[in-house]
Specification:
single chain; alpha/beta; Spore Coat Polysaccharide Biosynthesis Protein SpsA, Chain A; six-stranded mixed beta sheet; two-stranded antiparallel ribbon; 8 helices; 29% helix; glycoprotein; manganese; EC 2.4.1.186
Length: 268
């Protein structure tokens, strides 16, 4: 059995998780939808996400407590994202696509279950069963907001050991995962997802001409940074107020997020 998995550690990202789930449904995926939640998620939110996701799985929190490195990122809240490594313990699934709750699926991406992370579970090279797209800020690292993996308990245990013994160089899950899957940048092309599967239009650096060239092929939008779509102000007619950006592309993508929210989530 194969599944899409996301993570919700508190109520703050609930709107994101709901929109993500509905965007996957609207794209007519044939795979299961699962969400990992912690005890901090309230009962009303649990009831709402259970209407969208096939499996709601409660897990324990894992926090890096890496204050110094998180300060370098300017994102102190990211320590709790180490909870994400529970994905690798979901061995009831043969393969998963993990998506952060601040992503939006633009079209069906089920093809990744066949084309990426096809390494055998008994392959001594763990990098063969993991695939991700490069990070816009440092392309020799992958961005951990979207990845494909074959869950294996030994990888889950190995990630915990690395976290305890070495920590994470950025204080969050991305640094830890890049340290563990350290052969990603030198691996097979099937383990290096195209940027269209994890496009970060709100990142500090963006290549505007390339965005124009490939925007019709975008598969997953990842709204990185502290300011999320559900925090944008809107005019009375529902159009978003272009706060903190002059990029018409970013504004358009946030508007698409809100369109999904209005159609499937808002007022229900």
């Amino acid at each position: 059995m194969e599944a899409y998995i996301t993570l919700l550690t508190n109520n703050n990202y609930a709107s994101g998780a709901l929109v993500l789930g509905h965007s996957l449904r609207a794209a007519h995926t044939t795979k299961k939808l699962a969400i990992l939640i912690t005890a901090n998620v309230s009962r009303p939110i649990r009831d709402r996400i259970a209407q969208v996701y096939d499996a709601v799985i409660e897990i324990g929190e894992i926090d890096s407590h890496s204050t110094k490195n998180l300060q370098l990122l300017g994102r102190p809240e990211l320590g709790i994202t180490l909870t994400k490594i529970h994905v690798f313990n979901q061995t009831q699934y043969s393969k998963v696509i993990f998506l952060d709750a601040d992503t939006l699926v633009m079209r069906n991406i089920d093809e990744l279950f066949d084309s990426a992370a096809n390494g055998a579970l008994d392959d001594p090279d763990r990098n063969t069963r993991f695939a991700a797209a490069p990070d816009a800020g440092w392309p020799d690292c992958f961005n951990s907001g979207v990845f494909v993996c074959r869950p294996k308990y030994e990888d889950y245990k190995g990630l915990i050991e690395v976290a305890e013994q070495q920590g994470t160089f950025d204080g969050g899950d991305q640094g830890l995962l890049n340290s563990y899957f350290d052969g990603w940048s030198r691996g097979d092309v099937s383990n290096r997802l195209p940027f269209i599967y994890n496009t970060t239009p709100t990142s500090v650096y963006s290549y505007a001409p390339a965005f124009q060239q490939y925007k019709d092929k975008l598969a997953v939008i990842h709204f990185v940074g502290t300011f999320k779509p559900w925090q944008w102000l809107r005019f009375a007619d529902g159009t978003v107020f272009p706060r903190n950006t002059s990029s018409t592309d970013s504004i358009s993508l946030v508007q698409q997020w809100w369109n999904v929210f209005d159609q499937y989530v808002g007022g229900k």
